[in-house]
Structures are given as C-alpha cells and as structure tokens.
Design a protein that fits this description.
single chain; about 270 residues; alpha/beta; Rossmann fold; 6-stranded mixed beta sheet; 10 helices; globular
Length: about 270
C-alpha cells in the first residue's frame, strides 16, 4: 500500500465517515471539546515518546503530542477546518483504508473516534498494520456508560452511547498483541466536554452547544432532547439534582466509563 492520498470518504456530505454528520454538529466542536491536559498526559505516556505518530479520526487535533511528528487522518471537512494553525493539515481519509505502508509509524492513536467508524475491527487492524509500536485507543466502556447520573434524565442519549461504543473486548481482539486497559479518571473541571466531563457541573448540559458537541444527542429526536433538558433544568432549579447527586460537586475526579487501551505488537520470532 502506498502513501498516496485516498480521496474517497463515505458518509455525510462533508465526508464524515461514521453515523454522525459532523458537517451539521461539528461546527462548535473545538470550542467545547478542548483537550484536557491531565488526560493528555495519559495519552502521551501511552505513546511512549514515539517520534512519528498517526492520529486516526483526528478531528480538530485533540491530544496530539507536541513533541512528535503527527500525521492526522480525518474524513470530515468540518473537523479538518477546525484544526489550529500550529498543527499540520489532516489527510482526508478513513480508518478502514489508511493510505500508508506497513510499519510506517512508531505509534498510532485515536481518541473518541472508534464508535464513529463503519467497520471498527477493520480500522483497528489498519492501525496495527501501519504501526511498529504502541496503538493507543481512548474510548468509553459501553458497559459503564449508563452508570452516569445523566441516565436518570436523558436515557435515550446514554442508550445511544452504549450502543455505539464497541466493547472493550472487541477492540483488544482486533488489535491483538499485548493489550492493557486502563481507566482514565475524569477531572471535575475537565475542558474536554463529553457528557461525563460535566459530572460535577450539570448546568453545562443546559447549553445547546455543549450538547451538540456530544454526538449521541444528535441521534435523539429534537423534541425529546428538549424535554430531557427541561427536566434537568427543573431538577437543578428545585434542588432535586443536588439532593441526589450534589456530592459529586465536591469530588475532584470521577471514575466513569473513560478508558485507554494500549496494544503492543507481539515480538517477532527470530
């Protein structure tokens, strides 16, 4: 396989390869989904000081290590346009067909992306194919998604998340090699606005932009989302939310569904 740019991308009009149309929902993504420095350290440690890194489903460039030569792959034009000027432009491509030679990179990474892919196993095998060292996947464990308090107020949103995230066991099986699965604590003031990032700040989920930056909300009918939001707003205003979950406001970290999976290739037989 050559490094020639593959210009074909399935999905939406802007090239989104998965089931969410980031041409519609991705406009404010970089405002609400800013990489959190504490989570960034976890990702960077897992990459092990790699010099060359491919970031698959790179979006706006979150969690790309500053000290590495990063090649970003992103099918959505809306997301590629939001990459900061200090980052290299992303290649228009999909995980399932990476346009690189075998073993091209020291390491590979993907964050909050595998649930968007049309064929998760194929994309993960491609990441392993083009990578000599660690493959790092940050995702959510679908068996834990519904444990979050938001399920009390917006059950269809978290049902959607649990349905879309691939099982951790499926990810490790596709990657092969030696895999380690590490829970990632979520800080109370997390700057990366996925749903659980607001565990101690429920008011933030009343912001339409914050909800739009969490793709699962886009799969629920608008009138249902408005009803969910109204019920959450009323619970916060009445004190009912704090009566049930207020202790979370004082908790510095949440052990939620966020996990980091690191796969190292099997050693080559002599």
């Amino acid at each position: 396989m050559t490094d020639a740019l593959d210009q074909t991308a399935g999905g939406s009009a802007d090239g989104s390869a998965g089931d969410a149309d980031y041409g519609v929902i991705g406009g404010g993504y970089s405002t609400y989904r800013r990489p959190d420095p504490r989570i960034a350290r976890v990702v960077e440690d897992a990459l092990g000081g790699a010099r060359t890194v491919v970031n698959v489903g790179a979006g706006a460039g979150s969690y790309e290590p500053a000290g590495a030569q990063v090649t970003a792959v992103e099918p959505s034009a809306a997301m590629r346009a939001q990459r900061p000027v200090h980052l290299a432009p992303a290649i228009d491509g999909t995980a399932e067909r990476l346009p690189f030679d075998d073993g091209r990179f020291d390491a590979a990474m993907t964050t909050f992306s595998v649930h968007q892919w049309s064929d998760t196993a194929a994309g993960l095998r491609e990441m392993r194919r083009v990578t000599r060292g660690p493959v790092v996947v940050m995702t959510c464990d679908p068996t834990l998604v519904r444990d979050f308090w938001l399920y009390d107020y917006a059950p269809l949103v978290l049902d959607t998340e649990a349905r879309r995230y691939p099982a951790v066991e499926a990810i490790t099986a596709a990657l092969g090699g030696s895999c380690a699965v590490t829970p990632v604590p979520i800080p109370a003031d997390c700057t990366d606005g996925f749903n659980e990032a607001y565990y101690a700040r429920p008011e933030r989920l009343l912001d339409p932009g914050a909800r739009q930056a969490c793709s699962a909300w886009s799969f629920v009918p608008q009138d249902v989302c408005e009803r969910y939001t109204g019920e959450l707003r009323a619970a916060i205003a009445s004190g009912a939310w704090d009566a049930r979950h207020g202790a979370l406001r004082r908790r510095p970290y949440l052990d939620g569904s966020l996990v980091l999976i690191r796969s190292m290739p099997d050693p080559v037989a002599p």
